[in-house]
């Protein structure tokens, strides 16, 4: 059982390591009563269920993924030590990791679209630069031919 002095630090650590920052944990971390914190949240209109900033969501997903990887590692060490693995727990962790990956993919769709557009713009700029260089090269060749007195195809060499 944690002492009164240890409880706030445990709550802070849990939040830091990816636990959902619930009012209960926040009350522990701030050494306030849950009822007091709930009244303040109600009075000030705290919105714990609102839209999540994409950067914050990605950070939370990464922390959750890290937590699951640590669980995999613990399970692996325990399985090696015992000479057997808990298939049910491995399957559950695997499913959770896949869900996190899917959520991460969905939340990054706008960023991926922007990245593709940037890549497409860069490719278009490179293509236009190559075309521009080819036009300049052809213009120089034409100018060289005219300087040498050669005729340009389709003309009779006379000024109109």
TrEMBL record:
It comes from the Bacteria. This is Uncharacterized protein.
